[in-house]
TrEMBL record:
Keyword presence, Repeat: no
Alphabetized PROSITE patterns for the sequence: ZF_MYND_2 (PS50865)
Keyword Zinc-finger: yes
Residue stretches in coiled coil: none
Name used for this protein in its record: MYND-type domain-containing protein
Start and end residues of each MYND-type domain: 9-45
Entry GO MF terms: zinc ion binding
Taxonomy, superkingdom: Eukaryota
Pfam families: zf-MYND (PF01753)
InterPro entries in alphabetical order: Znf_MYND
Classification lineage: Eukaryota, Fungi, Dikarya, Ascomycota, Pezizomycotina
Keywords: Metal-binding, Zinc, Zinc-finger
Length: 340
């Protein structure tokens, strides 16, 4: 989002530095000019504010999803390679050091960007439900409608290949479905695509919906109301299979995030709704403090949690019923998300 600072009065064009308190973006040489400009600026002022709020929430969500990912990454990567526009993640066998099912991430040296790519690779479905309570909370304040979109990409600047220990490999190529959010403001007649896991494809998180469609969407597989993917995860979590245990623990982490957010808001006395219109520097400071608090909360939770008995139970069940887990998740998928 372009938020270049203005240096000249939006009405008369003279050098000026008094910021409009609404958008914190346009500047005026004095009260007179601001008053005269208001009829023209009013709508723009609202749009700037809304765009900034959406951009910041998206930015916070993306970073929050990475914190969540660090504590819920089920694949242990031994090494990462970069070959042009392709990132290769190599899974490794490594005994888990935590009884809590997920080892903390990363497992090998990697840059911050590669870390983000590794955490987002093939986990775009999860991004639609892992932060559900937080998104519901933030967006109700802005009066935005949220929808969950499953799409096929027409173009992706980057590719990720995951080499698994069983010799097979997975990748995020164009044929795969990708999941994103569609946020709409009916009042302001605009919508955005929030692509929380787009970094794996080299795609930014925040886009005006029409730009994203033009650049990246080949087709929409399905569009669901907000919360549908969470229902899917809750149903899978009831199954005594590996995927079920994965969803169950992720849902626990999701609750922990919400509790951490509440605790942090009370402790810092900063209501979340103010985060969207603070000065940029203040926003970054508070955002990072909140993220650190969530990270610590999740780490403490996972260090204490012990899912080893449940893990043993699902492993025993899957060994006794080979191949059946795929059928079960497929059934839940068909029931809740429909065909496709
Ligand atoms: Zn002026
Ligand atoms: Zn303004």
């Amino acid at each position: 989002m372009d938020e270049a600072a203005h240096t000249t009065c939006s009405h008369c064009g003279k050098q000026a530095s008094n910021k409009c308190l609404g958008c914190n973006n346009h500047v005026y040489c004095g009260k007179e000019c601001q008053k005269k400009d208001w009829p023209t600026h009013k709508m723009l002022c609202k749009d700037i504010r809304l765009d900034r709020a959406v951009f910041r929430i998206a930015n916070l969500l993306q970073k929050m999803f990475l914190v969540f990912g660090r504590h819920s990454c089920e694949t242990v990567y031994g090494s990462v390679e970069q070959n042009g526009n392709t990132i290769i993640l190599n899974e490794t066998y490594k005994a888990r050091t935590r009884a809590g099912f997920f080892d903390s991430f990363p497992h090998c040296q990697m840059t911050e960007e590669l870390e983000a790519i590794a955490l987002c690779a093939c986990s775009c479905d999860v991004s639609l439900w892992a932060l559900h309570p937080f998104i519901a909370n933030m967006l109700s304040v802005l009066g935005l409608k949220v929808e969950e979109l499953n799409i096929r990409l027409s173009h992706c600047p980057r590719q990720v290949v995951i080499n698994l220990t069983d010799g097979t490999s997975e990748n995020n190529s164009l044929g795969r479905d990708h999941s994103v959010f569609l946020w709409t403001s009916r009042k302001r007649n605009r919508s955005w695509i929030i692509d929380l896991t787009g970094v794996q494809y080299g795609i930014d998180i925040y886009h005006r919906a029409e730009d994203y469609s033009k650049k990246f969407v080949k087709s929409i597989v399905h569009k669901k109301e907000f919360g549908r993917y969470k229902r899917y995860a809750e149903e899978v979590a009831k199954l005594c299979i590996y995927e079920g245990l994965y969803c169950k623990i992720c849902l626990h982490l999701s609750e922990q995030i919400m509790q951490a957010v509440q605790a942090w808001t009370e402790m810092s006395a900063i209501p979340l709704s103010t985060l969207t219109h603070l000065d940029q520097d203040e926003f970054v400071t508070h955002r990072d403090a909140l993220l650190t608090y969530i990270d610590t909360t999740l780490r403490n939770f996972m260090d204490k949690a012990d899912y080893s008995a449940e893990l043993a139970a699902v492993s025993a069940w899957e060994n006794a019923n080979p191949g059946l887990h795929e059928l079960l998740t497929h059934q839940v998928r068909a029931k809740i998300l429909g065909p496709g």
